[in-house]
């Protein structure tokens, strides 16, 4: 019996699996699950629609007669269908802009669709959109302007914050899941002095829609990128210090645009921009060109941000034909560039692999899975990853992605190609984050390498891709 027990123990010892190399420690701060899900969308549609659509203004003053709101062919199903077919996963509606006109029948104001002739006062734009996005498998987002130029309690801090929270609760309890709630700090020079209770606003969203991300200049989940051009900084950290930023605070645009390395809060940037010169539809305006939209994409999604693109319905209540055509052209261009990864079948090698473990090997950057990644040992703050493409390959876009679930690390990198017997640099950059897209002059090479020059901790790369942009090529 003793011999049998000894043999059993020996068998257990012999067959015991070798200890695996431990995963890298996260570099704090790191994103929440809702922030990760938000960033992975890449494209979100904004819809500005209210009395301004009918007055040809950008900011209403709150004195508009509700009778002017009367779209002749309203169709939120068109908005949602176009959004899905052109690659947008969430649609955010201006449920109430600064004019105070509510696009739902609010119990707390007489300035709403209930007082308009549209659908004999029985219409509800918010409900129509909520049902339309659900039917298309999309997500709903809502914007509720803190500045209300119609509401008589505005200027009485306590009374107005109670009013605002009452309307916010209506929106968060009537229309099903809401995935982004958008606040801004816009306030005209003639606005009465008001202190918005943002902490109460945010706490209410957390209570009623815990899956929703909260957008404002200050976060807490998603920050404004500091401009309305759709351009993030070439250097763009998803980290910044919320204590340095307040909603509507002047002089913070540069800080919002770049974030701050090593700051205590994870608050990624959202690039908001309109497809037209204005946020609302105006009959004398035309949409941006395809080249302009592509430039915005490269400087938003391609700089570690989400692109929030506004498309305003016209007075019929539908997206204008020219805007729809531009959206489909934009989607077609993105598909032509990014559905083909020229590095997909490359052979990858690296200067260092964490613990020599294949789980962290260089091939992980080619599997189109951001949950896997190439990693170095903990004592490394740089490294080189080389791709052999098998044959000379022509490209002009380089795609790099970090596994941001473990934090943002890379401070500086360069990309090189092997030509004329030497490594030739073709691109240099600072931050990477969720996604970095570098456009370079069109080049043909068989071997490409990514050199991480400096990182805040052992560098990690989730994806490396090469693409050919023949739409906006040099």
Structure in words:
The chain has 474 residues and is of the alpha/beta class. It has 2 domains: 33-338, Glycosidases (TIM Barrel); 347-467, Jelly Rolls. The protein contains 10 helices and 18 strands. Strands 1-2-3-4-5-6-9-10 form an 8-stranded parallel β-barrel. Strands 11, 13, 14, 15, 16 and 18 form a 6-stranded antiparallel sheet that branches. A two-stranded antiparallel sheet has the order 7-8. Strand 2, helix 5 and strand 3 (139-144) form a beta-alpha-beta unit. Helix 4 (76-85) runs parallel beside helix 5 and helix 6 runs parallel beside helix 7 (198-208). The longest helix has 18 residues, at 157-174. The model is unreliable at 1-15 (pLDDT under 50).
CATH topological fold name of the largest domain: TIM Barrel
The first-to-last residue Cα distance is 79 Å
- Which consecutive residue ranges, at least 5 long each, have pLDDT under 50? 1-15
Name the strands of the widest sheet in spatial order: 1-2-3-4-5-6-9-10
- Per DSSP E runs of 2 or more residues, the count of β-strands stands at 18
Largest sheet: 8 strands, parallel, barrel
> Structural class per helix/strand content?
alpha/beta
Helix fraction bin: 10-25%
Strand content: 15-25%
Separate helix tally: 10
Structural shape: globular
Brief sketch in words of this structure:
With 474 residues, the chain is of the alpha/beta class. It has helices spanning 2-15, 33-41, 52-55, 76-85, 125-135, 157-174, 198-208, 253-258, 290-298, 321-338; strands at 43-47, 90-96, 139-144, 180-182, 213-216, 222-224, 239-240, 265-266, 269-274, 306-310, 347-350, 374-375, 383-401, 410-419, 422-429, 436-455, 460-461, 463-467. It is built from ten helices and 18 strands.
